[in-house]
Amino acid sequence: MQIAKGPYLNFHAAHAEKVEEMKTLRFSNKIFIVALLCAATTIAASAQTLTTIANFNKADGFNPTSLAQGTDGNLYGVTYYGGVSSNCPLSPTAGCGTLFRVTTAGTLTLLYTFCSKANCADGFNPVGNLVQGANGNFYGVTQLGGGNTSVCSEGCGTFFEITPAGQLTTLHGFCSQTNCSDGGQPIGGLMVAANGVFYGTTEGGGATNGGTVFSITSGGAFTTLYNFCAQTSCTDGSFPAAAMVQATNGKLYGSTDFGGTYNRGTIFSISTAGSFASVHTFNRGINPSPNPLIQGADGNLYGTTAEGGTYRDGTVFRLTPAGTLTYLHSFCTESGCVDGELPYVGLAQGNDGNFYGTTSGGGRIYYAGTVFEITPTRSFSTLYSFCAQTACLDGSAAMGLMQATNGNFYGVTKDGGSDNAGTVFELSTGLGPFVEAKPGFSNAGKTVYILGNNLTGTSSVTFNGTAATFSVISDTFMKATVPAGATTGTIQVTTPSGTLLSNMPFHIIK
User: Fold this and answer.
1) Quick one: CATH architecture of 436-508?
2) Residue 244's pLDDT is what?
């Protein structure tokens, strides 16, 4: 049972059906099973260099969703299924999900198996992305579990903290407040703002059962910031299902699957104090189900929709902070859907300024998904089509993609690989290493973290030419203080092996 529909999905019967359909598309490990059975020959891969660096085997995970680079240079993520817990109530065979670490060389380590505690008090079916806090620990959410079964029969999800060594602490169980006022099933994942507080959304619950925006500290102090469907006919949106992003103006931007003027989803902004505004309401095609947004180097927001577009197979779009939306690409517009379709994750902007992403379907081979590149001026290229290897050993149904500071892209596939449980892959496009500041904006005097490679022996750090004080913590991590008089621009780090530039301009907030 995914969710108790009575209190959550009573806005419209069609909504309930649609949400269940989207969950099936996002999380089912059977989407491409027919294609996998047909994959029996080797087909030449594209010119891009894609390497499978790790294979999941169900015991260490099954259906990975995304990756995040830690300060140690390793990649961390979750799998929706998998693990060896005997307590898993819904799918003991598939497992309740895991947390893992993988090096860029491909060493995969299981950190935690969910539903390891009685009554799944630690949650299960982790979703979205992991984010690293200032204390070095990672934070995330589970869709189910947590012990609060009065609304959701298996629990409404959790917010958790885990150390890099694998010690997990449950900090909040959703629907633990009266009438589920804190929301339930936070399927969109988390983000950490410049103030160090975590922010997320819940798909259900809240004052009007349309979902919520919440904040929570690393100590577990929880606040509901907004209840969706607070406006007549849910014109403010309902059922948010994607992680938010903080833009350089300090506002958080996110999306909803439903609601809005045309009941086809919205994009919204909200301040860290809870001041809410609708930015855009979708009005084309069927419900587009927008995915997580990113802010590009030009200050605009970029994202994908899982549906909508010319043939209702998904889009790439740009949105100005003022709310003007431009579609940059509609998927499946190339013959045979070789450009891919159904992108269920957002974009990553490379240090070349172009945008990169994945699709879970389409492509040149067995409909197994793609990796694509698109420029800000709409030039689109399919970089790789999955299932290019015999028996889909390179994976299928691609999900999250990110660029690590070594310049290569890393991502996961839900299916395929040696055990048909998903893979971790590396894609080299010839881009060089860089440094990444977290957060990407601040004011003078504040400390920012800088991720990179070969940082030991760094001799200088400048913010758009202005020298900063800094301390090197490790070969992959350093801290710097934003200098007085600095202006918005590139961070430059001088190391013994060369000069590294930031992948995005660092914005100085006055």
Assistant:
1) Sandwich (2.60)
2) 97
